[in-house]
Specification:
The complex is a heterodimer. Chain A has helices at 2-17, 20-46, 48-52, 68-74, 86-94, 126-151, 172-206, 209-215, 220-248, 256-281, 284-301, 309-317, 325-350, and strands spanning 60-64, 79-83, 100-103, 115-122, 162-163. By secondary structure, chain A is of the alpha/beta class. In chain A, α4 (68-74) links the parallel β1 (60-64) and β2. The longest helix of chain A is centred in the middle third of the chain and has 35 residues, at 172-206. Chain A is elongated, with a radius of gyration of 29 Å. Chain B is mainly alpha-helical. Chain B is 67% helix and 6% strand. Chain B contains 24 helices and six strands. In chain B, the strands form two sheets. Chain B has a four-stranded mixed sheet with strand order 2-1-3-4. In chain B, β3 (91-94) and β4 (97-100) form a beta hairpin. Chain B is globular. The chains are: A alpha/beta, B mainly alpha.
C-alpha cells in the first residue's frame, strides 16, 4: 500500500507538471459551450414559445384564398397580406416583401374532403425558420378546430386536462441540460481517465522503464494499482469542479455527493478495463484503438436502458431519485470488483 | 517522389504488422457489438430522460396515458395530493385538474405532459383509419430559393440560454442589428458568394400536418455526417501513435541520418494514413449512397485532423501529454466543423463548415465550387501551415529531447524566420488562418455569457490572440538573439509584422470573412475600415516590440498584455454603442 502511494504521488506530480489537466479542463469548457450553443439553436428553432419571448419581428405572410383559417392567422403573431392570385403573391415573395405564402383551398371544416394548404417558404433562410415558427400556432389551432367538428362524427373525444395559467415554457432546455449536458460533463473525465491509464502504462513498456521499476522494491501490481488510483481519484475532483461551474451558471444540481460517488465507481470500471487492455497489448497504438472501440460501445450502451449511469446522473441531478441510487451504485461497484478480480487473475496468468 | 513512396510503404508495413490477427478479430467483434447496440438503440429509442419527472395522479386512466412516455414516473394514489405536498412530486393531477409548482422542473414536466397527451391523441386518431375526419388539415411545403435580404437576422443575435434580464438582451439585439446597416454597403454580402450557384427553383417539397410543421433542422443528416468523421479520428490516432512511437523508441533516428529530406520522411509517413482515411470515407460514401463529392469535401477535414495529430506527436513529451493535446485539438476541431452544420438549412453562414456541405449533399442539394472554396480554404491553409511548421522541427534536436512544448514551437518559428525572406511580414500572414479559426471558435464560446459581456470578453481575448501572433516572431528574434535588441530594430520589426497582419487580414477578407463582416463581432475582427486598422496593427505591435526591447524578453507576457490593451481599447471604442450603450 505504501508503495502504491509512492506511485500515486509520482503520477499526480507528473500530471500537474505537464499541465495536462489544464487542457482537460479547457476541453470540458469547450464541450459545455458547444452543448449550450446547440441547445439554444435547437430549442429556439423547435419551440416558438421560447423565441416569442424575445419578440422576434412579426413575419409578413401573404394569403391567397379565403376560409376559416384567415381568422386564426389574423389573431396570431403574423402580419397578413391578402392577394387575389398566386402570381402577384410570388412577385412580392421574390422581392422579399413577404416571407411566406399560404394558399387556402375551398374546402371548409364542415365538409368531408381533406383541406390541402400550400405554403411557400424561402429556402435556407433564417426568415423561413421564423415564419414557420410563427405560423405553426394558428395552423395547429385551426387543425383542432376542424377536428372538433369532424371528430365528433366518428365519436372521438380528446383527453382534456385543465390547468390554471399555462406558463407556456418548453421542456426542451430542461431536458437537454439535465438529460444530456450534465451526464456528458460528469462522464467526460471518466473517459479521459481511461485513456490516461493506458498512456501511463504503455509509456513504461515502450520506454522500457517498466523493467527498471520492477527491479525496485515495488511489485508489478503495486505499480498498476498506484497508476489506477491516480486515474480514478482525479475523476470526482474534475466532476466536482464542473458541477460547481454549473452552479455558478445558475443550473442547480442536486445530490452532488451521490453523483460523485457514482462517477467514481464508473471511473473504476473504465480505468480497470483500460489497464487490462494496456497490460495485455503493451503498445499505445493498439491499446488506444481498442479502448476507443470499447468506449464507443459503452457510450452507446449507456443510453439504451433505464438506470444506466447516464440516466442515474440525470435523475440525481434533477432530484428525481434519492438514496435508492445506492442500490444501483452497489451493482456497479460489484461489477467493478468482479472486473478487478478478473484482472488480478489475468495478470498472474497473463504477464510474462 | 520515389523516396516518399518507399517511406510510405515502410510505414504501411509497420502499422499493419502491429495489428495481429487476434487484434483484428477482437476489433471486428467489438464493431459488431457496436452495430448491434446502435440497432437496438434505433429500435427501442434512447433512454435519456427516463423517470425524470415524478407525477402523482388520482385517475388510473390518466396514469395509463402518461405511462406511454418513459419520462414519467407515475404514482396512482387516492391521496395523491399529499405525495405532491410532502414527497416532492413534480406534478399532481387531481381528477382532470393539473397542479404544478413554480420551478423549472415542474414547468417543463407540464410541457412534457402536454406533448405526451397530444401524441397519445394522435395515435388514437390514427387507429380510426379515417384520414378525412381525423387528420383533416395537410400542408404542402414548397421551399423556394430566392435572393436573401441584406439584413437577415444574424445567428449571433439568438437569445441567451440563461434567464437573463429579458429587456436588457433584447435591447442589445436591436443595437447589434443596426451595425450591419452601416457596413453592409461596402462589404460583399454572403449572398454574392453563395447565390451564384444555380439551384433548381423548387427543390424542397414536403407534406406535413400542422403539428409536424417544423423548421428544417437537418438533425438526421448531421448525425449521419458524423459517421464520416469516425474513420478519420481513428486514422489520425494511428498516425500520431506511430510518430510518437518512433520518438520514444528512438527508431526514427536512423531515417534522419539518411540522405532523405525531413519533408520527404513526413510526406511518406503521411501518405498511407491520408490515403487510408480517404479510402474509408469513399467506402462509406458508396455504402450510404452519397455523392462522390463528399470524398472531396472530407479531404481537407482529414488533412486537418492528420496535421494536428502530427504536430501533437512532435511537440508532446509523453503519451499522456499527447493524449491531452489531441483530445483538446479534436474537440476544438469537431466543434468547428459540426456546430455550424446544425444550422445548415437555416442560415447561409453555416457553410463555413465543410460538414454543412456534406449535410447538403445528403439532403440532395447542390453544392457549388464557390461553396467549396468558401468552406475548405481555411482548413487547407491551416493544415498546410501546420505541416510546414511541424516539418521545420522534424529533426533530431527537437524529436529526441525533452524540450517543452513552448520551446519546440519557438524552434519552428525560428526556422521559418531563417528560411523565408521578409520573415516577419510573411509570418503574420502565415499565422492568420490560425487567428481566424480561433476567433471563430471564440465567438461560439462567448455565447455562454450575456451578449454585452460576451462581446467585451471577445474583444479582449481576440486582441490578445492577435497581439501574440503579431509579436511572436519579434519575440523569437530577440530571445534567440537573431538580431540586435535595439529600438530601431524593434520599430522596424513592428512595422513589418503589423503590415503583414494587415495585408493578410484584407486578403482573407476577400476570400472568406465577408459573411461575418456585418456583425458586431466582425467589426471587432478589424474588418470594414482600412486606414485605422493599419495604424492600429502597427501601433499595437510596436508597443509590444518596444516593451520586449525595454522590459526584456522574459517579460513577454506583460508585453503582449500591454499591446492587447492598446488594441482592445481601439476596438471597444468602435463597438462602444453595443457594450456600453
Amino acid at each position: 500500500m505504501v508503495n502504491s502511494r509512492v506511485i500515486v504521488k509520482k503520477e499526480i506530480g507528473s500530471l500537474l507538471n505537464e499541465k495536462t489537466l489544464l487542457l482537460a479542463i479547457i476541453v470540458q469548457l469547450l464541450i459545455a459551450s458547444f452543448s449550450s450553443m446547440i441547445v439554444i439553436g435547437l430549442a429556439s428553432f423547435f419551440d416558438p414559445s421560447s423565441l416569442s419571448k424575445y419578440d422576434s419581428p412579426r413575419a409578413e405572410v401573404g394569403i391567397v384564398g379565403q376560409g376559416e383559417l384567415v381568422q386564426f392567422i389574423k389573431d396570431s403573431q403574423v402580419n397578413p397580406h391578402y392577394y387575389t392570385d398566386i402570381v402577384s403573391a410570388r412577385s412580392d415573395f421574390d422581392s422579399n416583401r413577404i416571407d411566406a405564402i399560404v394558399v387556402i383551398p375551398k374546402e371548409d371544416a364542415g365538409g368531408n374532403e381533406l383541406i390541402n394548404l400550400v405554403i411557400y417558404l424561402p429556402k435556407s433562410d433564417i426568415r423561413g425558420t421564423f415564419v414557420t415558427l410563427q405560423l405553426k400556432k394558428p395552423l395547429e389551432e385551426y387543425e383542432s378546430y376542424v377536428r372538433d367538428i369532424r371528430g365528433a362524427r366518428i365519436g372521438f373525444e380528446p383527453i382534456r386536462l385543465y390547468v390554471d395559467d399555462m406558463p407556456g415554457k418548453t421542456s426542451t432546455y430542461f431536458e437537454f441540460i439535465y438529460g444530456i449536458l450534465i451526464p456528458l460533463l460528469v462522464f467526460t473525465p471518466v473517459f479521459i481517465s481511461g485513456g490516461l491509464i493506458i498512456d501511463m502504462l504503455t509509456e513504461e513498456y515502450e520506454r522500457k522503464t517498466m523493467d527498471l521499476l520492477l527491479v525496485s522494491p515495488v511489485s508489478f501490481s503495486q505499480i498498476v494499482n498506484g497508476k489506477m488510483i491516480t486515474a480514478i481519484i482525479i475523476v470526482p475532483a474534475q466532476a466536482f469542479l464542473w458541477l460547481l461551474l454549473l452552479r455558478l451558471n445558475g443550473v442547480i444540481v442536486y445530490n452532488i455527493g451521490f453523483i460523485l460517488l457514482l462517477c467514481g465507481i464508473i471511473a473504476a470500471i473504465v480505468v480497470i478495463l483500460g489497464a487490462m487492455i494496456a497490460v495485455k497489448y503493451k503498445k499505445r497504438m493498439i491499446s488506444q484503438y481498442l479502448y476507443s472501440l470499447v468506449l464507443i460501445l459503452m457510450f452507446l450502451a449507456g443510453y439504451i436502458f433505464t438506470n444506466s449511469p447516464f440516466n442515474l446522473v440525470t435523475r440525481l441531478s434533477a432530484d428525481s431519485i434519492g438514496a435508492e441510487v445506492l442500490v444501483y451504485c452497489g451493482g456497479y461497484a460489484a461489477s467493478a470488483i468482479v472486473l478487478y478480480a478478473g484482472m488480478i487473475r489475468f495478470q498472474i496468468s497473463g504477464s510474462d | 517522389m520515389r523516396r516518399i513512396f518507399t517511406i510510405a510503404r515502410w510505414e504501411l508495413r509497420k502499422t499493419k504488422s502491429s495489428f495481429s490477427l487476434k487484434t483484428r478479430f477482437l476489433s471486428f467483434i467489438i464493431l459488431i457489438l457496436i452495430g448491434m447496440t446502435s440497432f437496438f438503440a434505433a429500435q427501442s429509442g434512447l433512454h435519456i430522460n427516463d423517470n425524470i419527472y415524478r407525477v402523482a395522479v388520482t385517475d388510473a386512466s390518466i396514469a395509463r396515458v402518461l405511462q406511454s412516455e418513459a419520462k414519467f414516473e407515475v404514482h396512482v394514489a387516492e391521496d395523491a395530493g399529499s405525495l405532491f405536498e410532502n414527497e416532492g412530486f413534480d406534478i399532481l393531477i387531481n381528477g382532470a385538474k393539473i397542479y404544478y409548482r413554480d420551478t423549472d422542473k415542474s414547468i417543463s414536466a407540464l410541457d412534457a405532459i402536454d406533448k405526451t397527451i397530444k401524441r397519445y391523441d394522435e395515435a388514437r386518431l390514427l387507429s380510426y383509419n379515417d384520414l378525412n375526419n381525423t387528420f383533416p388539415v395537410w400542408i404542402t411545403i414548397k421551399n423556394i430559393a430566392r435572393e436573401q435580404a441584406f439584413q437577415t437576422p444574424s445567428i449571433n443575435t439568438l437569445p441567451q440560454i440563461e434567464k437573463s434580464n429579458e429587456k436588457k438582451s433584447s435591447a442589445a439585439q436591436q443595437v447589434i442589428e443596426k451595425i450591419p446597416e452601416k457596413t453592409a454597403g461596402n462589404t460583399p454580402s454572403i449572398k454574392e458568394i453563395t447565390e451564384i450557384k444555380k439551384v433548381s427553383l423548387i427543390s424542397g417539397q414536403s407534406l406535413a400536418t400542422p403539428s409536424h410543421f417544423d423548421p428544417p433542422v437537418p438533425f438526421k443528416s448531421v448525425v449521419l455526417s458524423f459517421i464520416f468523421i469516425f474513420p478519420i479520428y481513428f486514422i489520425a490516432q494511428f498516425f500520431s501513435s506511430s510518430i510518437m512511437d518512433e520518438r520514444i523508441k528512438r527508431k526514427g533516428e536512423l531515417l534522419l541520418v539518411s540522405p532523405l529530406n525531413s519533408y520527404e520522411i513526413v510526406l511518406g509517413k503521411l501518405l498511407p494514413y491520408l490515403l487510408g482515411s480517404m479510402a474509408l470515407v469513399a467506402i462509406m460514401t458508396l455504402k450510404l449512397g452519397g455523392s462522390p463529392l463528399i470524398i472531396l469535401i472530407m479531404l481537407p477535414v482529414s488533412l486537418m485532423f492528420l496535421s494536428t495529430s502530427f504536430l501533437g506527436a512532435i511537440i508532446a513529451r509523453s503519451f499522456k501529454e499527447l493524449s491531452f493535446v489531441l483530445i483538446f485539438l479534436s474537440v476544438f476541431l469537431s466543434g468547428y466543423i459540426f456546430f455550424p452544420a446544425m444550422f445548415a438549412n437555416i442560415h447561409s453562414i453555416s457553410i463555413i463548415s465543410p460538414i454543412t456541405l456534406v449535410v447538403r449533399l445528403l439532403e440532395n442539394e447542390a453544392v457549388s465550387v464557390s461553396d467549396y472554396m468558401f468552406s475548405t480554404t481555411p482548413l487547407y491553409l491551416l493544415s498546410i501551415l501546420i505541416f510546414i511548421f511541424g516539418i521545420f522541427i522534424y529533426r533530431e534536436e527537437d524529436l529526441f529531447t525533452q524540450k517543452s512544448i513552448k520551446e519546440k514551437l519557438l524552434d519552428s518559428i525560428q526556422e521559418f524566420i531563417k528560411r523565408v525572406p521578409f520573415p516577419l511580414f510573411f509570418l503574420s500572414i502565415a499565422l492568420l488562418p490560425l487567428v481566424f479559426s480561433i476567433q471563430l471558435m471564440l465567438i461560439v464560446l462567448m455565447f455562454n455569457f450575456p451578449i454585452r459581456i460576451g462581446i467585451f470578453f471577445f474583444i479582449i481575448v481576440a486582441a490578445f490572440i492577435e497581439e501574440i501572433i503579431k509579436s511572436v516572431g519579434i519575440y523569437t528574434v530577440f530571445s534567440r538573439k537573431m538580431a540586435d535588441v535595439t529600438t530601431v530594430n524593434a520599430l522596424k520589426f513592428a512595422i513589418l509584422s503589423g503590415l503583414g497582419f494587415f495585408a493578410g487580414e484584407k486578403l482573407l477578407l476577400l476570400v472568406v470573412v465577408a459573411s461575418i463582416a456585418g456583425s458586431a463581432f466582425g467589426s471587432v475582427m478589424g474588418i470594414g475600415l482600412l486606414v485605422f486598422p493599419l495604424i492600429l496593427h502597427v501601433t499595437s505591435t510596436a508597443s509590444s516590440s518596444l516593451a520586449i526591447r525595454y522590459l526584456g524578453h522574459r517579460e513577454y507576457l506583460a508585453c503582449v498584455v500591454i499591446a492587447s490593451m492598446v488594441h482592445a481599447a481601439y476596438n471597444l471604442y468602435l463597438v462602444r454603442s453595443v457594450v456600453f450603450g
